[in-house]
Structures are given as C-alpha cells and as structure tokens.
Specification:
Structural class: alpha/beta
Strand content: 15-25%
Largest sheet: 8 strands, mixed
Shape: elongated
Strand order of the largest sheet: 1-2-4-3-5-6-7-8
Number of helices: 18
Length: 465
C-alpha cells in the first residue's frame, strides 16, 4: 500500500509486482474501490508493476477538493503517470473507471500504451432500472443530512437493497463468491462517500464519449457481460460503430462484474491482449525478474525471425513465454533429443544443418547436406503439426546451436486463447513450409535423391491433408 500526492490530492493505492517493471494502473468504477479489479492484480503482476488506485472520495483516498468530473479524475491519473513512470503505462478500468481511462487516452494518448475496459460506461447513461433505483438515493445523499438519513435507514432495509442490487449487478448464473460480493457491497455502502457518489453519477452523464472514440489510436480491449443491467450493452454498440477495429468481447453468464463472474476467461483475454507471459498452465504462476528478462530478450529476437513476422510487441512477448530454449553442442542430432514431443525450431544462435534423412530418402544412401539454417530461420513445423517422419535430419552446426522450440500443445493453446495471434502464427508457418519445402525438394532433386516422378508422388503423399 502506498499514498501518492497528485495535484494536491492524496491518492491511496494497492500495489503488486516488482517496482522496476512497466506500470499497470487499475481504475475502479462508481461506488467502488481498488478492490474492484483485484482478480486481475496477480495475473498482471507477472509482467507489470500493478497499481490499483482509490479514486478521490472512494476507498481510503480523501475527497476531491473540487466538484467531481470525469476529466478531473483523468487529469489526476495522467499526472500520477508522469510522477511514477518513465514511459507509457497500461490502464485497466472498470465501469466509470473505463470511462476515466478512455478520457485519459483521448487527452493524453502519449502516456498510455494499451487499455483494457471492463463494462465501461460510454454514454454515461446507465440502465433504466439503475436510474430508477439509484438516482433518488443519490439526490438525497448529495446533502450531509440526507446522507445521514440514507445511511441510518439503509441498515434497516439492507436485505432488500442487496437483493435489488444483486439482480442489477450480476448475471443469473454468476460465479461471484459470497465473500467477494460482501466486499463489493460494503464498498458501495461506505458512509462518507455519499457526496462523491452523487457527483460521480452526474459526472458520468456529463461526459458522454459518443462521437469521440473514432479518434483513438491506442489499442483497447473491451469486455462486457451479456447480462450487464448496469451499463447497458447499447454502449457496446457505440464502441462497435465508432471503433471498427476494437477488440470487443461479450461474455455469457456475466453481468456488470465479469472480472469476478467469469474470472478465467477474462484473465485469458487480458493476458493475451497484454502479452502477459504464461510459463505454465497456471495463469497466476509468478514470474521472477530473471525469467521476465529472458522472455523480453526472446521477444526482441522474434522480431527478426520468420515465426515472428507481422506480430506486434505484445504478441511476440506472449509467444516468447511459450518457447522452450535448448542449447546443443556441435554436431548433435536435434530430432533424436526431442523425439517424444516433436517441436518446430527457431535458430536463436549458431546454425542448424539439414541433411537428407538417413532412412534413405533417395537411391544414394549416403546422406547429403541440403542447407544451413541461421539465426531467425524456422524449421520442423511440418513434422510438429502432422507427427510424421521429418523430411530431413537436423544437426547442430560446428559451433553448436541455441534453439527455441514450440510444441503442438502450446501452439494450439496460443491459438485458442488469442485467435488473432493464432492466425498470424499459422500464416507464418504456412509460408515457411511452402518456401523451405520448395527449397528442400529442389535440393533433393539436385542431389539425385529421387526421379521427378517419385518426387511428385512423395509430395502428394506428404501434403495430402
């Protein structure tokens, strides 16, 4: 926990992850606190220094000295970024926090690298049910006497209001636990926040972002629950209309709090979008600084490799966390050491030599050297995909080789978690198979390994589905 002084305001935060990592700032919504995005903190701390803030008037932060507007909240976030970060940050905002994040992006895009918006309010107009239930309470809460009356009376009718708010906030088949629900409801009941809640209710309506989203160039992931009865899905329609290339996900069996109601799928979407390294099947497995540095170095190398072509920085980072690294001494057979689990290989250092298969590819049983693969080159993807005998034998060169390997299971997991990354990888694999296989067959022909007719039959058998 840390407290920052920003533009004369004390802002309380909850932090996780190494301080020397890139910053990820988490912004909660209306009538909430830093706890609102707690389900994502452990995941994000694998790559980032995570800072979940209590906006002024919420949680343990003091009230805003001026009347609340979303722009003032966005300005505070921007100034906090300038104080604590040497470069662009990641913003993750829920509900009103999503609107605050988008407002910050519109006014200070240079400070923000990527944004995740979960159930964000876009127009500021909440659902009819929410307005009918909350607006009268907000009006009464806006005065000190009214706030006392509401707080005193609320204790008597808490069961009724809880049942009403649960239906508005959560899906019928919600997976939120009772403990999580009670923490969120206690945040909403915080006595001293009455004036702030009332002002924020008006501030959201006065900050309609319709017509402003098309100017945003920062990559943004939008996540909504299909049963969101607080911020209606018509706001998602505004996003779809104005940001045709936005990454927009609608989740079944989730309401206004998908980060609690559908934890695993939200974590997968966020991890894929932000390139959070996943070294095991456990999304929340910690990643140390040494491991993170290794992943970062590998991701940088992928920028000059055939498998990393057309991948953005976060996609390369995500892929890098799934690659196994092997170090081979000179003249070592690569397939023999990995025969139980065929992988595609990317040469990171040294060289790999491709030789005609010693099982007898052609008439001449003496192996023939076909080609030499240098750093950035990829091979073995066809054998990895179809589990058939490799076309050529792969041998580490005279100086040995450092090789990155990707097996079938990890490739399929990447494609399932992030279809866009999966399609780019399959495109790169297909291009590489086409180019390298053509070269290999040309070499085989030159070596007299097969007659042209035999070679054509071999090609057809090899590439039949």
């Amino acid at each position: 926990m840390a407290i920052y002084e920003v533009l004369g305001q004390s802002i309380n935060t909850v932090e996780m992850g190494s301080p020397n990592r890139q910053k990820a700032i988490l912004i909660h919504g209306w009538s909430s606190s830093s706890y609102a995005l707690q389900p994502l903190m452990e995941l994000l701390s694998k790559r980032y220094h995570v800072i979940a803030i209590d906006l002024p008037g919420y949680g343990k932060s003091e009230d805003l000295k001026e009347r609340v507007t979303i722009k003032r909240y966005a300005d505070l976030v921007a100034e906090l970024i300038r104080q604590i970060s040497n470069g662009p940050v990641i913003l993750v905002g829920h509900s009103m926090g999503g609107m605050t994040s988008l407002t910050a992006v519109i006014h200070t895009p240079e400070l923000i690298e990527r944004v995740v918006c979960i159930s964000p309010t876009i127009t500021g107009v909440l659902s009819t049910t929410t307005n009918l239930l909350i607006a009268p309470i907000n009006f009464i809460e806006s005065t000190r006497v009214g706030g006392f009356i509401i707080y005193s009376g609320e204790a008597l009718i808490r069961g009724i209001t809880d049942r009403m708010m649960r239906g508005i906030s959560f899906a019928d088949r919600t997976k939120i636990t009772d403990d999580e629900y009670h923490v969120l409801r206690n945040d909403a009941r915080q006595r001293r926040g009455g004036r702030t809640r009332a002002e924020c209710f008006t501030a959201m309506r006065n900050n309609n972002l319709s017509g402003k989203l098309s100017s945003i160039r920062t990559p943004i992931l939008f996540i909504w629950g299909a049963e969101d009865n607080t911020v209606p899905l018509r706001d998602a329609g505004v996003v779809a209309e104005e940001m045709f290339d936005a990454d927009l996900r609608i989740l079944p069996n989730a309401g206004h709090w998908p980060q609690f109601e559908a934890k695993q799928i939200v974590q997968k979407f966020v991890a894929s979008f932000l390139g959070v390294p996943v070294l095991t099947d456990n999304l929340n497995e910690p990643v140390g600084d040494a491991e993170l540095a290794k992943v970062r170095e590998t991701a940088q190398f992928l920028g000059v490799s055939s498998i990393g072509e057309n991948l953005n920085e976060n996609e390369k980072f995500r892929l890098a966390s799934q690659l196994n690294q092997y170090v081979f001494p000179p003249f070592r057979s690569i397939y023999q050491e990995n025969s139980d689990d065929p992988e595609l290989f990317v040469v990171q250092a040294g060289t790999i030599e491709a030789w005609t298969n010693t099982n007898g590819v052609g008439r001449n049983q003496q192996p023939q050297r076909l080609s030499e693969l240098r750093p950035g080159d990829m091979t073995g993807e066809l054998a990895m995909i179809d589990h058939k005998t490799p076309i050529a034998e792969l041998i580490s060169g005279s100086e040995g080789a450092v090789i990155l390997g990707l097996n079938r299971a990890r490739l399929l997991a990447l494609a399932e978690d992030d279809p866009e990354l999966g399609s780019k990888l399959m495109w790169n694999l297909t291009n590489n198979i086409t180019n390298l296989t053509r070269q290999t067959f040309e070499q085989l022909e030159k070596a007299g390994a097969r007659s042209r007719l035999e070679l054509e039959v071999f090609k057809q058998e090899r590439f039949r589905k």
